[in-house]
C-alpha cells in the first residue's frame, strides 16, 4: 500500500481494486457484502497511515475523475484530484478553489473530511453530492445535509462514499485566479516539507491553539523515532525521512500527544486516518 499513499508507508492489501465508475464501485461493494469481505474505499491516500502488516480484505480506489462546467457550477466525480479540479476551474475563469490547488488529495476525500486551507473549506463551495453506500443504495445530499464542520462531514462516520460533487464558484479574472494560486503555492513550498512523504497536517487544530506551535514549544521540532520525524520546517507535519514504518509514525504521534498534554494540558487529536494491521 505504500505506493498508494502519500506517506509511502504500509504493507500489502489482500486485494487492491480500482473502480472506474459508480456502477463498478456499487458492484464491488455488493460483492464484498455478499461474501463478507472487509473493505476500505480510498482516494489519493493523502490522509492515510496504513499498518506495516497491511490490510486484510479489499482496498477499493475510486478512479472516476471527469468534470463538467455549467455557468458557475462545476460537477465533478470524486476521483478527480484537487489540483486538476483547481486547474479546471481556472480554465473556466471560476474562483473559489484556489485554496485547494496544493492539497494532495481527491475531491471525494476532501468532501469526506471537509478539507481546508488558508481560511477556506470545502463547505464553502460544495452544495450537493451523490453517494453510494455499502448496502448498494445510491443517494443525494444537499446543503446542510452534509453536516460540515471542522475536518468533518456526514460522510466521515458513515457507510456512504462520495461519487460526485457539485461546486458553486464565482466568475473572476483568470489572471487574478492564477496569481492567487501561485501565491498559495509559494507559501506552501516555503512553509511545508513538500519534499518528504507525509500525510499532510498530522493533528487537528485544538480549540484556542495551533498544533504546530504547541509541538514546537514542547521542543519536539526535529524529534525522530526510526524513520519518522517532526518536520524541522513545519512542526505540524510528521514526515517519512526515507525508511519510516507505520510503527515509527504511531510511536512518534503518541509521544507528541503525551508531551503536549504533559506540558500544556492540551489534547491533540490525529487528523490522519489509520487503517490496517499495525
Topology:
Elements: E1 13-19, H1 22-34, E2 39-42, E3 48-50, E4 55-62, E5 67-70, E6 73-77, H2 82-91, E7 94-95, H3 107-112, E8 116-117, E9 120-121, E10 126-133, E11 138-142, E12 160-168, E13 170-171, H4 174-191, E14 198-201, H5 211-217, E15 224-225, E16 228-230, E17 237-240, H6 246-264, E18 273-275
Parallel strand pairs: 1-4, 2-4, 3-18
Antiparallel strand pairs: 5-6, 6-12, 7-13, 8-9, 10-11, 10-12, 14-17, 15-16, 16-17
Describe this structure in words.
With 278 residues, this protein is of the alpha+beta class. It has three domains: 61 residues, Uridine Diphospho-n-acetylenolpyruvylglucosamine Reductase, domain 2; 111 residues, Uridine Diphospho-n-acetylenolpyruvylglucosamine Reductase, domain 3 (2-Layer Sandwich); 83 residues, Alpha-Beta Complex (Uridine Diphospho-n-acetylenolpyruvylglucosamine Reductase, domain 1). Helix content is 26%, strand content 28%. The strands form six sheets. The protein has a five-stranded antiparallel beta sheet with strand order 5-6-12-10-11. A four-stranded antiparallel beta sheet has the order 14-17-16-15. A hairpin with a 6-residue loop joins strand 16 and strand 17. It is globular, with a radius of gyration of 19 Å.
What's the CATH architecture name of the largest domain? 2-Layer Sandwich
Main sheet properties: 5 strands, antiparallel
The radius of gyration over CA amounts to 19 Å
Shape: globular
Report the helical percentage: 25-40%
CATH names the topology of the largest domain as Uridine Diphospho-n-acetylenolpyruvylglucosamine Reductase, domain 3
The order of strands across the largest sheet is 5-6-12-10-11
Distance between the amino and carboxyl termini: 13 Å
